[in-house]
Amino acid sequence: MKVVVDAFGGDNAPLEIVEGAVLALKKHKDLEVILCGKEDKIKEILNGREERIEIINADDVITNDDVPTEAIRHKKNSSLVVAYDTLKTRDDVIGLVTAGSTGAVLAGAIMKIGRIKGISRPALAPILPTKKDSDVIIIDSGANIDCKPVNLLHFALMGSAYYSIIYNVESPRVALLNNGAEEEKGNELAKETFPLLKNAPINFIGNKEGSDFMSGDVDVMVTDGFAGNALLKGTEGAVSAVVSILKKSIKSHFLSMIGAIFMKKTFKDIKNRVDIQKKHAGSPLLGCKKLVVKNHGSCARANILASIEQTMKLYENKLNQKIEEAILKLEETEN
């Protein structure tokens, strides 16, 4: 399998991106990687470790300051655009991994790759831990700020298909993010979306509030990109604040510091549980004709390794085919 990687996307590019690709190649002997970016810099990092690596030179870089659509149109020799062109034109490439600008990644996916037939909009679906021994995905988390009910319906179908592959769950529990559990609650978007999800070929469990999404009782939380991104960032901020408060409290008491020594393994387990990126790395841009995995801009090599493995798993388990089948079932239900 061949995966194309945007070697110059992200805050820690190109070093962490290239090293992450090398880790993936060491772990998977059936993998080949295509690195897009400044060839001399990539070769300098590789330092002779070029087995099963193809380098495609791209002298330009798309930054967060660029206007996404304009950058995709005009920065044709950027690492991201060259990676998208490679993904589009080569049948032997199964997917793309990037930590670049979210806006540019979304624009490139739509302009270069296109959507699966029947899908109204692609969506990002990050994974978060719950208080039980399970995870939950939020879809959408920022790709689509203004949505229509049909968009959320398609998000639910794609999210359900994605979750079933990652966790081998036949009927994931799908909920609609709302300000109350009652069917009549919510804004116009939520009220119009509810009956669509209720009649869709998914395991829809109704409305759930923001406080419920990490309870372990929801597998797929469906929402528009504005609310989803706010929920995601708010949760990340809350977790960071709690960790900081805990550290400060421990350091302020001598007995707490002694106790922390005995709880070192517990703290390590908590850290591993919360750092979901190490397990599943990036967020797939669901709904594109080919696999695109968007990693966090500040990701490290371990996250790139996980993103490449995620791409391989989604390809092997035919994610896009499952989404196409879900669309067909929806059309049968509507007819």
Overview of the structural elements:
The protein is an alpha/beta fold and 335 residues long. It has 2 domains: 1-119 and 287-316, Isopropylmalate Dehydrogenase; 124-277, Isopropylmalate Dehydrogenase (3-Layer(aba) Sandwich). The protein contains 13 helices and 12 strands. The protein has helices at 15-27, 39-46, 68-74, 79-89, 102-113, 149-167, 188-198, 225-251, 254-262, 264-274, 277-280, 301-316, 319-334, and strands spanning 2-6, 32-37, 53-57, 93-98, 123-124, 127-129, 135-139, 173-177, 203-208, 220-222, 283-286, 291-294. The strands form 2 sheets. A 7-stranded mixed beta sheet has the order 3-2-1-4-12-11-5, sandwiched between helices. It is globular and about 60 Å long. The model has no long low-confidence stretch (mean pLDDT 92).
SSE inventory with pairings:
Layout: E1 2-6, H1 15-27, E2 32-37, H2 39-46, E3 53-57, H3 68-74, H4 79-89, E4 93-98, H5 102-113, E5 123-124, E6 127-129, E7 135-139, H6 149-167, E8 173-177, H7 188-198, E9 203-208, E10 220-222, H8 225-251, H9 254-262, H10 264-274, H11 277-280, E11 283-286, E12 291-294, H12 301-316, H13 319-334
Parallel strand pairs: 1-2, 1-4, 2-3, 4-12, 7-10, 8-9, 8-10
Antiparallel strand pairs: 5-11, 6-7, 11-12
Helix pairs in contact: 1-12, 3-5, 4-5, 6-7, 6-13
CATH fold-level topology of the largest domain: Isopropylmalate Dehydrogenase
Beta-strand content: 15-25%
Provide the CATH architecture of the largest domain. 3-Layer(aba) Sandwich
Order of helices and strands: EHEHEHHEHEEEHEHEEHHHHEEHH
Q: Sum up the overall morphology in one term.
A: globular
Strand order of the largest sheet: 3-2-1-4-12-11-5
Helix content: 40-55%
Q: How many H/I helical runs? A: 13
Rg over C-alpha atoms, rounded to the nearest angstrom: 21 Å
Cα-to-Cα separation, first versus last residue: 39 Å
DSSP strand count: 12
- CATH top-level class of the largest domain: Alpha Beta
Low-confidence blocks of residues: none
Give the CATH H-level superfamily of the largest domain: Isopropylmalate Dehydrogenase
Number of domains: 2
Overall structural class, as computed from helix and strand content, comes to alpha/beta
Q: pLDDT average, as an integer?
A: 92
